[in-house]
Automatic annotation (TrEMBL):
Compositionally biased tracts (Polar residues): 349-367
Name of protein: SAM-dependent methyltransferase
UniProt key word Transferase: yes
PROSITE patterns membership: N6_MTASE (PS00092)
InterPro entries: DNA_methylase_N6_adenine_CS (IPR002052), RlmG_N (IPR058679), RsmC/RlmG (IPR046977), SAM-dependent_MTases_sf (IPR029063), Small_mtfrase_dom (IPR007848)
Gene3D superfamilies associated with the record: Vaccinia Virus protein VP39
Highest rank taxon of the organism: Bacteria
Length: 367
């Protein structure tokens, strides 16, 4: 299996021991029927494993669009979907259609407890009464709090023995349906913004310190008819730009389904949905070369659970390609990452606009 078209590196794998343990722990469950759901599959290991174990068709939700594309690519390398027969799996949003009537849910545990809570509540409310969640992860990333979150939606939560530094949680007997708190909404009067966020979005409905630096710099940014919020997350930067500049149109883009849904809801909540277009995409793949005037970016510095600059480097290169001559890229980043040389190579001359003990804000100019 490969991660492609996701970031590939020697220390990044397309699967790990937790995928294998999840499949082994679920091996005695009814894979033969069309009632298997996979959530959080990173690059296709769980989906392809379920199909190999006898599932006739699998409903899948992967938050990242690159994960979706990697699953398709890995399936094609195994000859699935040949002859125009179509893939034996379907990508669905994280809503009732994904889990309706499901009896087996294979889950790669998210690191966010909020993301896990949203998933657990959805499964408990819409899956079959005898549904079983088989949720696994690396032991170093698991906490007792995950059991507690699952126990809010399921009567029985048990843990497997650890194997190869991985463990599985089994959740059964869904509790009576409760009103879901997702997505959550929070008003920030100090910023003049309302944030809406699903469980899987970085920072949720809070405003992280780095993003505040970007917001404070908006008055200093060049004039433009269109701006881009790259890796938009909950959409706060896109909505703030639209509110600060009534004549500006903003493109907000992110590869995360949870981020895109949150950014759209945030734009609606702030009354700027008519001027904020939100797109799920791999970086700026929908933006033509040499066309963008202003791009804002708070890049992730994790690839999955690994600290890795590969994703940020891809975003810098994408911004450099898409910016028109004279365009600006405003980037906020953790100061210890020393991104300035990479920004200068990918975009052009880069100056420090502001710096704190933890974060650096730079502006890069396309020559």
């Amino acid at each position: 299996m490969r991660r492609w078209p996701d970031v590939e590196a020697d220390n990044l794998q397309a699967w790990d021991a937790s995928d294998r343990l999840i499949l082994d722990e679920a091996s005695a469950l009814p894979f033969g029927a069309d009632d298997v759901v996979v959530i959080g599959d990173r690059h296709g290991a769980l989906t392809l494993g379920a199909l190999a174990s006898g599932a006739s068709r699998v409903r899948v939700h992967q938050d990242g669009i690159l994960g979706e594309r990697a699953l398709v690519a890995n399936a094609e390398r195994r000859g699935l979907g040949a002859g125009g027969s179509g893939m034996p799996f379907a990508h669905l949003p994280l809503d009732a259609s994904l889990v309706e009537g499901a009896r087996v849910v294979l889950l790669q545990l998210p690191r966010s407890l909020d993301a896990l809570d949203e998933i657990a509540r959805l499964v408990a409310a819409h899956a079959a009464p005898d549904v079983r969640i088989v949720a696994g992860g690396r032991v170093k990333h698991m906490t007792r709090a995950m059991n507690d979150v699952l126990a809010q939606s399921f009567q029985s939560v048990t843990a497997s023995l650890a194997r190869q530094k991985s463990r599985v949680l089994h959740a059964t007997q869904p509790l009576p349906s409760q009103a879901t708190p997702w997505p959550r909404t929070q008003r920030h009067d100090d910023a003049g913004l309302t944030l809406v966020a699903h469980g899987g979005v970085f920072a949720g409905t809070s405003i992280d310190i780095g993003t505040r630096l970007l917001l404070d710099a908006i008055p200093s940014m060049r004039s433009a008819e269109r701006a881009i919020d790259l890796a938009c997350g909950n959409g706060i930067v896109a909505s703030a730009l639209a509110l600060a500049r009534p004549d500006l149109r903003v493109l907000a883009t992110d590869q995360s389904a949870a981020a895109v849904a949150s950014a759209r809801a945030t734009a609606e909540a702030n009354g700027v949905a008519d001027r904020v277009e939100v797109v799920r995409a791999d970086g700026l793949e929908t933006v033509p070369d040499d066309s963008a005037e202003l791009v804002l970016l708070n890049p992730p510095f994790h690839v999955g659970a690994s600290v890795h600059t590969g994703l940020a480097d891809r975003l810098f290169a994408d911004a450099g390609r898409a910016l028109a001559p004279g365009g600006q890229l405003w980037t906020v980043w953790n100061s210890h990452l020393h991104y300035r040389p990479a920004l200068q190579r990918a975009v052009g001359p880069t100056q420090q606009a502001h710096r704190t003990s933890k974060f650096t804000l730079t502006v890069s100019h396309k020559p």
